Amino acid sequence: MPGPLLETLRGANLSRRPIWLMRQAGRYLPEYRELRADKGGFLALVYDTDAAAEVTVQPIRRFGFDGAILFSDILIVPYAMGQDLRFLAGEGPALSPRLLDATLESLVAAPERLSPIYETVAKVKAQLSPETTLLGFAGSPWTVATYMVAGEGSRDHHETRALAYRDPGAFQAIIDAIADVTVEYLSGQVEAGAEGLQLFDSWSGSLAPAEFERWVIAPNARIAATMQARYPHVPVIGFPKGAGEKLAVYARETGVNAVGVDETIDPLWAAREMPAGMPVQGNLDPLLLLAGGAELEKQTIRVLEAFADRPHVFNLGHGIGQFTPIEHVEQLLGIVRNWTR
């Protein structure tokens, strides 16, 4: 019997809304900070499969969320494609050689770098009850490409956007290569035990409409179609952060099973504009969770009521903040679990 999260992602409109939170495994938890201090660097933690599995189940053990999401990083895909990956203290991830300076063909693929992630999935799956849905994930091609091209994160992704305008053929090859590896990576996660998948397009909001169609919608549609053909029982959540009014087109054209809504979108608009019956996920502002109190309760209920007439997974509009108090998460859980449509 599937758990409530999986049921909802498959289209059931349940009275009690399932809940999980993006970045629920991480720095706001004291048990995570203790383990991280013991293990050292972030990448070392990801590749220690016992530790990564422990991090994944920590929030389930503490809060009993309806979904566990794999503890990993979207940049594992370029790492497997042959770029070197480092996480620099205070600066974030760094990939080399960056594709502004090197060709895609010069990279030497290292698919063995994916195998430990599958081991983590299997170890997590063995620890979860049947009611808790295990979610795998990957970054969407556009977002992954912004890091591969520039070698690091940036505010407006101008170098990647300029390359896409200047040489769309070369950039299409990068997007296609990322999509190919992503399909195999997600397939490996499903084979290891993932029951649902999320595609994170964290930087989709930086694109003009025509570019959004080509670099966000088209590759995500290809990935979703391939995964659904291979694993029709495994729902795919698409999360194009910053898409704004383009979210409705994304929901209609990508073929994902469910769509994540970020905190900048009015939930009443999303409830009205998303395809009829499509499950939605979101979209409380993470800063409300940081603040807590009466406003957290008010806005949580507003989100729940806005999506009352369709399948809804309660979540944040983006990741939980590092300094979020544990008691505020407990407050949120109490509100969601005591609400019924």
Any overview of this molecule?
Pathway: Porphyrin-containing compound metabolism; protoporphyrin-IX biosynthesis; coproporphyrinogen-III from 5-aminolevulinate: step 4/4. It is found in: Cytoplasm. It catalyses: uroporphyrinogen III + 4 H(+) = coproporphyrinogen III + 4 CO2. With about 350 residues, this protein is of the alpha/beta class. The chain has a single domain, classed as TIM Barrel, CATH 3.20.20. Helix content is about 50%, strand content about 15%. The chain contains 15 helices and nine strands. It has helices at about 5-10, 30-40, 40-45, 50-65, 75-80, 115-125, 140-150, 160-165, 170-190, 210-230, 245-255, 265-275, 285-290, 295-305, 325-340, and strands at about 65-70, 85-90, 90-95, 135-140, 195-200, 235-240, 260, 280-285, 310-315. The strands form two sheets. A seven-stranded parallel β-sheet has the order 1-4-5-6-7-8-9. Helix 8 packs across helix 9 (about 170-190). It starts with a helix and ends with a helix. The mean pLDDT is about 95.
